[in-house]
Every structure is written in C-alpha cells, then in structure tokens.
Design a protein that fits this description.
Layout (H helix, E strand, L loop, with lengths): L6 H19 L6 H8 L3 H7 L3 H24 L5 H18 L2 H6 L2 H6 L1 H27 L9 H21 L6 H16 L3
Helix pairs in contact: 1-2, 1-4, 4-5, 4-8, 5-8, 5-9, 5-10, 8-9, 9-10
InterPro entries: Cro/C1-type_HTH, Homeodomain-like_sf, HTH-type_TetR-like_transc_reg, HTH_TetR, KstR2_TetR_C, Tet_transcr_reg_TetR-rel_C_sf
Organism: Geotalea uraniireducens
Protein name: TetR family transcriptional regulator
Length: 198
Amino acid sequence: MITKKNTRIRKEEIIQATFAVIGSRGMHGLTIAAIAEEAGMSEANIYRHFGGKTDILLALAEFIGSAVMGKAAAIAAGSRKPLEKLETIFFSHVELIAEMPGIPRFVFSEDVQRGEPQLAEAIAFRIGAYVETLAGIIAAGIVEEELRRSLQPRETAVTLLGMIQMTALRWSIGKASFDMKDEATRLWSNFLRLVTDR
C-alpha cells in the first residue's frame, strides 16, 4: 500500500528540488517543469503546494532563515564559550553551502538583488538578524576576554559573514573548483589571529 506524503514533506521535497535545480542550472534554468522533474512529481503537484514560482522562492528564503540564521540563534543561546559558538556557526554555514550549492546562486541572483521586492526584503531581514546574532556572541567574547577589547562587535560580525559570502561566491563562480572546507579552515585560522591575542 502506498502511503500519501503529507503537505509538509512534499513542500520540503519541492524546496530541496528547487535548490538542486538552481545549483545545477542556475536561476535562469529554474522553471516549474524543472522543479517537478527534479522532485519526481507532476507540475500539478507543485501547484498544489505553492501558488507559483514566487511562492517557492519565498519558501527558499524561509528555509535559509531556518537552516542558517535559526541554527545560529540556537547555538548563540547555548552554554558554550563565545569562540566555540562562532566556530560552530561558521563551519556549519560553510558545510551547508558545500552540500547545497544552490544556496549562494539563489542569494546572489538577480531575482533577489533587483527582482521581487518581497523576496529581497525577506533575505535582507534574515541577513540583518544573522549579523546581530553574531555581534551578540562577539560582544560576549570581548567581555569574557576571549576576543580583543578593541573589536567592534557588529563590524567584526560583518567581516565574519563576508568571509563566508566571498568564499561561497568564488566557489559558486568557479564551479566548485576548490575544496570549500579546506579554504574555510584556513580562513578561520587567520580570523582567530586577527581577533584574539593568540
């Protein structure tokens, strides 16, 4: 007997399929037909769960908010030391991008930059919240004397996020021509030298 999948599972499958299409074909190759083919379902089934392409793109923004920003907030609320929190957030973000190359291609796309205003606002809001989360951890690290007292929390947070974004952009443009995790390890080591007295 075939068990019918619930709406939540179907939506997750569509989101994963959409990221896969973007990762392999770019935003220009993203169509409902391509998503349906990748997800192994009919186009009618896609429309049963989403009103159209814009709704799917907003769902991608929500997924990123949960997978990256939401996870960072959960780590920030934990009991680990600030530097350990930052390291965990940094490498988990890099790992997610390595596993889902569609994420940077989506975030850096024209659709987000100059397309649907609601989509741009959703991404901008989540990035802003992410920076604030990182800044809070950095501020705690300064108070606990893990980080240099001269650091500005928000600017340091933007620097850390910029490391991830620039690496993701280079990796995406270069079609994964280098090992992102190896690059991240080198960048993190350098970041530590800049922000600590080690």
